[in-house]
Fold PA domain-containing protein.
Amino acid sequence: MQKDVTYTNTGSEPITLDLALKVQGIPAGLFTLTTSQVVVPAHGTATAGVVGHLEAAVEDAGYSAVLTATSQDGVLRTHTPVGLNKQSQRVKLSVSAKDRRGSALPGMLVMKDIARDTVPKVYLVDESGSLDLSIQPSTYAAWLYADVTGLDGPHSLGRAVLSEPEVVVAKDRTLTFDASTLRKVSATTPQPTTNSYVRVDQYRSYGDLHRFVDTYQLEPWIYDSLWATPTRKVTQGSYTFATRWRQVQSPLTVAAGNQSYDSIIQSFSPKLPQGTGSYSVVDVGSGSAAEFAKINVRGKIALVRRNDATIPTAQAAAAQKAGAKLLLLVNDGFGPLDAWADLPQEEASPLPAASLSTDHGKQLIDRIQHGTESLKLTSHPYPQYLYDLVQHHDGAIPRDPAYRPGANELAKIDESFRDTKQGEALDIRYDLSTDFTWAVSAAGTPVAAQGNYTAWVTAGSQYKWLSQAAVPDLTQLGSSLSYQARSTTKETWFAGIQRPRLLSDSAVSTAPSRVGDIISVFGMPSWGDSGRHQGIIWGGFTLESSLYQGDNLLAQGSDMLSAEVTPDELPYRLVVDATRDLPERPYSPRTHTEWGFVSDQADYTALEPLPLIQLDYGVSTDLAGRAHRRTDLAVTPSQLPGAAEAGKISAVTLEISYDDGATWRTAELRRSGNEWLTKLDAPSTSKFATVRATAKDTKGNSVTQTVVRAFGLE
């Protein structure tokens, strides 16, 4: 194709122009000129052609260059932008979205050409419910996210996922999303629960092309339910519709007689104490200060209606001033109500606050007006049980996407939190992707930092989980694990002995590794607990990591380092010194760990974990972290899964100091399975035990670890 450029000379003398194309980063020969020089007569014009060679261009790509015209005296007279865009063949896709009544349904459309490695595109379908797209002929995955009302009650607000995972577009056609076929995506657990987290993942693959994954997390302060449309099974590539729930024991149940009402604890709300009780309820109308001044609500439940005249923070302030036990807000719109969801914590309610949906609120108000004077409250500020559930549907979304797991589909985890100080912790559990390469965490659930509860998870080798627990100054992280159906696992968090502990089988962390001739430490977790978790603290500590070959220091850093080494098989040492100065953590203020390992050139395409022997400890303590003076102490050495050149553990030693390392006693060890056991013999005046353990394997790898004040003594 050719486009002409015309030059105009307004002068009284002819002018000769030398023409050239300035190009950069475009295919050679894409643009050429019909002539390299033109003579423009006085008061006249001259034309030159720029030719674009489409055969050199890639489809749906844009290119640019600059055409320069220079006079014989070397002066640049003009520069003209030149551009070319080669558009592929296009067809028209007319998108139509309808709600359950056949009316227009607006939403957000996600489309991915699955037969090409292209970026997915997102389009807004407006209030007309229609959209025309000009796209390449291909096979697409398409789904529409839309709001739907009234499916789970007159004032319910759900989020719908209307999916068409295989849309073949060979010519102009229509794609219709029909909400009349929606089915509820829900989980029903053996024990009563409420949703705290819901997520949908859609995986779409085609041959060797990059897999497309789209993730949507339900906003529980906006929507009360999730819905999806059943689909036909795909015939090209693969498709998985995955759903993820965290369901917890209901934090607060409100009941009048035999009627229970779903309530939502408001963000940042103070907690009601554990237990069940009946309390008088008073209808305070709009909840203004003037209305509260007229009614006695001291020690009672104050029921108010959400309204624009008196905002929830003002209602809460008035209720607290009047001495109410609980503020119960009734929504006046669609969906759930968390009036504090978008507010800063500084504006939290000064008294416990919860909400009811519009429909449940109207029912309760009607009962109060007909004589109900009290409500039964059942409070679980920290759950005694929770469920982490996941379900994968391969090929299509079924007609019933609900999940009703029975005992033969679940595994039990007995969780024990044993932090040395009381307070609140977070329970977090990641679920791994279908190929186990990455993980997404559910919203954390507050639990007692000293307490026990039960977690139930979806069992099976096709699912993997990764657990995490956190208190304000310390986070612990576990391995990626599958659980057998009907199995019971015991998991303990934050118990001593805390020290550097590495994992090589966690989807969210990387153990010290070698790739080719590079040895790297990617983050040294220095405060792992007795539950075989790796631990990280967020302040009040110092950490120094050093890599040696013999006595030659190769690299040094805090929790990260990297060094290029020779390809030969040589012995190395990784030395880690960690200290922390936290006033409420008297144990493990200082540790010294030295790993000796042998390594040679590794695969250049994959990280190989280093053969660093791990030491786990077991000692029974009270919640203050103190052990009996004659109790058992266990040391369990192990190799990192997947570590290169790891041998069989061949020797273990243990020394104990009861005077912070001034003197040491060599412990007599007896082996029991993978453990080496000894019994403490602490003097009556000692307050702490310091331990120094070593282990070696048959390949020349070793570890020496000293933990100062590893635990206290009763």
In short: The helical segments are 289-293, 312-321, 358-369. Residues 103 and 296 are 49 Å apart (CA to CA). The chain has three helices and 53 strands. The first strand starts at residue 2 and ends at 8.
